[in-house]
Amino acid sequence: MIQIGQFNKLRVLKHADFGVFLDGGDDGEILLPLRDMPDQCEVGDEVDVFICYDSEDRLIATTAKPKIKVGEFAHLMVKAVENVGAFLDWGLPKDLFLPFAEQTRSLRMGHFVVVYAYVDKSGRLSASMRLERNIDKEPGEYKEGDEVQLLVAARTDLGFKAIINNRHWGVIYSNEIFQNLEIGTRTVGYIKKLREDGKIDLSLQKLGHAGSDDIGEKILEALRDNGGYLPLNDKAAAEIIYDMFGVSKKKYKMALGGLYKKRLITVHDDGIRLVK
User: CA dihedral defined by 142, 143, 147, 150, rounded to 10 degrees?
Assistant: First the structure.
């Protein structure tokens, strides 16, 4: 059985002037238009295609990669607003429908919204702004320090809420953000703390010495690029450290300590120097 709103491997049944027809099983033959056909596409071949609907609500296949698949979250632009709902740009010819009942605020063309993609009871591909309803309530199998994929989805009094691996909520605290973040940002993050109440604290930097090692390499590179000297010792202002390396002063001091112990740098009142 094919999965609508997902990539499926389907077998080529026959050629036509306007494309090829694929074996959709119980759903019958599904057209893969000529514009989306791979260079080599013979009868009997299996092709990896995304299944959606065309403008006449017929199943259609495409090799194009959409901005969101069913079961995922994404930050999409509103292309049109009508009485029944809005229509979102998800990278395919037919826009993704966002029903009025699934909107949490008034929308206008050009707005961007974080949505979840699903198949409604009638089989129609749709989107929802009701994120809480679609977040996985079961605990995730994470460990502190795990690298995860994040989608920044909401701003709070504490900082930002981010969706972890398309499944769970996590929080990035304002005082631990040392880069520009905004709603819709996709970035790599790390599990900082798993709380007893099930909530997850996130970090945008590797934890402990693993993170300071990465920063240490950046410091060494900056020293080499500046003649072996930087006016940034462990007493430098946090703002200056962030502007140059995008990290907190604590992380920077850990990295300096590691480089000093390895005898790669010397630390002075006016800055740091590369050991020759």
Answer: 40
Q: Which CATH number fits domain 147-203: 2.60.120.650, 2.40.50.140, 2.60.40.3450, 2.30.30.100?
A: 2.40.50.140
pLDDT digits (tens), the chain, 276 positions: 899 999 999 999 999 999 999 999 999 999 999 999 988 888 999 999 999 999 888 999 999 999 999 999 999 999 999 999 999 999 999 999 999 999 999 999 999 999 999 999 988 999 999 999 999 999 889 999 999 999 999 999 999 999 999 999 999 998 888 778 899 999 999 999 999 888 999 998 887 655 555 788 888 988 999 999 999 888 888 888 877 887 778 888 888 888 888 899 899 999 999 988
Task: Write phi, then psi, for 71 (nearest 5 degrees).
Answer: 90, 5
Identify the CA nearest to 254 among candidates 218, 208, 191: 208
Distance set, CA 93 to CA 83, 85, 127 (Å): 21, 18, 16
Q: Which fold has domain 208-274?
A: Arc Repressor Mutant, subunit A (1.10.10)
Read off the pTM: 0.78
Encoded amino acid at 113, one letter: V
Cα separation, 9 vs 2, in Å, equals: 9
In CATH, the number for domain 73-133 is 2.40.50.140
Integer Cα distance of 18 and 63 in angstroms? 15
Superfamily designation of domain 7-62: Nucleic acid-binding proteins (2.40.50.140)
